[in-house]
TrEMBL record:
The lineage of its organism: Bacteria, Bacillati, Chloroflexota, Caldilineae, Caldilineales. The middle region has homology to RecA with ATPase motifs including the RadA KNRFG motif, while the C-terminus is homologous to Lon protease. NCBIfam families: sms (TIGR00416). Gene3D superfamilies: 3.30.230.10, P-loop containing nucleotide triphosphate hydrolases. This is DNA repair protein RadA. It comes from Litorilinea aerophila. GO terms for molecular function: ATP binding; ATP-dependent DNA damage sensor activity; damaged DNA binding; hydrolase activity; zinc ion binding.
């Protein structure tokens, strides 16, 4: 029979070593390694049973109680919303975004928020010096006692400081700038990013410390580094916005602890990122009510309805290939809508350049904004304004028919709240069960086709 083996298990971090050491190489604690005898399996018995361990057995779902998670609450409502109601202890959260969009600013504000109300926070800056962070903090009016800054790029050192300080929250800015001494390649390479993240996440999970990692994005706008990083973390947040617009949208792309597609809206100001609680009002503030080429769409961002102004300009061109430019909308969608307007409504757009812009630097991806885009184009082409008190909701099909969209009651409540008197919706949406609970204070007009919608929407 094979002989029993002895291994050493760290009582602090649970790592196993083949020989005894005074200091655990994984967590750095002293005198924590304990000898464990591993008996080989007797014939016919499993190794697990031989060592007095039990194997997991299947249990019914009903018998497992889902224990409520205690989340770290944030005063920043918008951030809370995106995270699904606060920071879950032990969660790994990746925050991506273009350079200069405001990731460091937002996370420093969040760090100050947690330091003030909950406990010690460690902000690891691998890109900027402690002085630079301090200058930013001064500008933001942050002077928390419990907020610690660490300018460090070696993961092992960072881990040591985390274990020493035992903060309630750790932020690492950025994952591309740090490296592990165990890796052979330079900082920022795929294997370094993956290994460094794995080390940090393991300690975060073991000690139940939430960990925010800042990630760079590539030119194409996807998170740089290995794709596996997105699988390793629990939540992926994306900070978006046009550089020359003040608005910033924080989107949750993946969230194991909340719904995805939630957005938090911020405005970059002199004193950092300010939350925007009533975005629709803000987006409509500069609107000229009777200008041709402007229409109001009611779009959904996650669970939140947003009213946005869509502007279109159609202008004659002597060139044989007219231009189509979409800012904030998908260009293919614009081409499709222009084709439907030509073929089904009879607008002669072949000699027209068409420009479409979503006001405020917003990006709309959902087809529910189709109707507003098409109406804005037609309004500009005919030089005829859209009724000022009208909002538009609906997807447009290739036959020029209006197709129903989800979450209609929510959209209409928001439109009513902002003082719109009428809203055009696809007629089919009104027959469905989803139409229950529509607001009474707004006139709801159901239409079947884009042609009918234009009759009603444009001021004749
Ligand atoms: P930053 O948070 O450094 O961006 P990131 O970490 O995503 O690269 O933000 C940089 C920009 O934000 C910079 O152009 C200056 C601007 N900013 C403000 O407008 N107001 C402020 O209060 C702060 C701190 C920065
Ligand atoms: Mg930064």
């Amino acid at each position: 029979m094979a002989k029993a083996k002895v291994q050493y298990v760290c009582s602090q971090c649970g790592s196993t070593q083949m020989k005894w050491m005074g200091k655990c190489p994984d967590c750095g604690e002293w005198n924590t390694l304990e000898a464990v005898t591993i008996r080989p399996a007797e014939p016919g018995r499993s190794t697990l049973a031989a060592n007095g361990l039990t194997t997991a057995t299947p249990v019914t779902l009903a018998s497992v109680g889902a224990s409520p998670v205690e989340r770290l609450p944030l005063r920043m409502v918008e951030l809370n919303r995106v995270l699904g109601g606060g920071i879950v202890p032990g969660a790994g959260i990746l925050v991506g975004g273009d350079p200069g969009i405001g990731k460091s600013t937002l996370l420093l504000q969040m760090a100050a928020d947690v330091a003030r109300h909950v406990g010690t926070v460690l902000y690891v800056s691998a890109e900027e010096s402690a002085h630079q962070i301090a200058r930013r903090a001064q500008r933001l009016g942050i002077q928390e006692e419990r907020l610690y800054i660490l300018a460090e790029i070696v993961v092992e050192q960072i881990l040591e400081q985390i274990l020493h300080l035992r903060p309630v929250l750790v932020i690492v800015d950025s994952i591309q700038a740090i490296y592990t001494e165990g890796g052979a390649s330079a900082a920022g390479t795929v294997s370094q990013v993956r290994d460094s993240a794995a080390l940090l996440l393991r300690v975060a999970k073991q000690h139940n410390i939430p960990l925010f990692l800042v990630g760079h994005v590539t030119k194409e706008g996807t998170l740089a580094g290995p794709r596996v990083l997105e699988h390793m973390v629990d939540t992926v947040l994306q900070l978006e916005g046009e550089r020359f617009h003040a608005y910033r949208l924080l989107r949750s792309v993946k969230n194991r602890f909340g719904s995805t597609n939630e957005v938090g809206i911020f405005e970059m100001g002199d004193r950092g990122m300010e939350e925007v609680h009533n975005p629709s009002e803000l987006f409509l503030a500069e609107r000229l009510p009777n200008a041709a080429g402007s229409a109001i769409a009611v779009s959904m961002e996650g669970t939140r309805p947003l009213l946005v102004e869509i502007q279109a300009l159609s202008s004659h061109t002597p060139f044989s290939q007219p231009r189509r430019t979409g800012n904030g909308i998908d260009l293919n969608r614009l081409l499709l809508l222009a084709a439907v307007l030509s073929k089904r409504v009879g607008l002669n757009l072949a000699d027209q350049d068409i420009f479409v812009n979503v006001v405020g630097g917003m990006r709309i991806n959902e087809p529910a904004a189709d109707l507003a885009i098409a109406v804005a184009i037609a309004s500009s082409y005919r030089n005829c304004p859209v009724c000022a008190d009208l909002a538009l909701v609906g997807e447009i099909g290739l036959s020029g028919e209006l197709r129903s969209v989800g979450q209609l009651p929510r959209r209409l409540h928001e439109a009513a709240k902002l003082g719109f008197a009428r809203v055009l919706v696809p007629r089919s949406a009104l027959n469905r069960k989803g139409a229950d609970g529509l607001p009474a204070q707004i006139e709801i007009v159901g239409v079947r086709t884009l042609r009918d919608a234009l009759e009603i929407a444009l001021v004749q």
